[in-house]
Amino acid sequence: MKTKSIRIxxxxxxxxxxxxxxxxxxxxxAMRKLIRIGFETYIGxxxxxxxxxxxxxxKLLNLSHIxxxxxxxxxxxxxxxxxxxxxTSLEDSHRNKIEFAF
Length: 102
Prior knowledge:
- The chain is mostly helical and 102 residues long.
- The protein is built from 5 helices and no strands.
- The chain has helices spanning 10-23, 27-48, 54-61, 65-74, 83-101.
- The protein starts with 9 loop residues before the first helix and ends with a helix.
């Protein structure tokens, strides 16, 4: 882990203190938690806008595809695929399974 020195505004310190008290955790852990939540939200928005794929989002978040999908779903972020993309993916997957079956 790297150590960084930053200036934090009073309103953000108040948010950190709320997390500390609510979750009974130390300040550095609360700060990391809030940074992680912010990063997940940021990547979720990029995904929603179609600027990153699910695969790219999962990699950036260091999650599996399923974990990323669940995270986005819980946050109300819908996938940026339409039904034809899903059908094409399923057909390709099915075709690959048939090819490997022989």
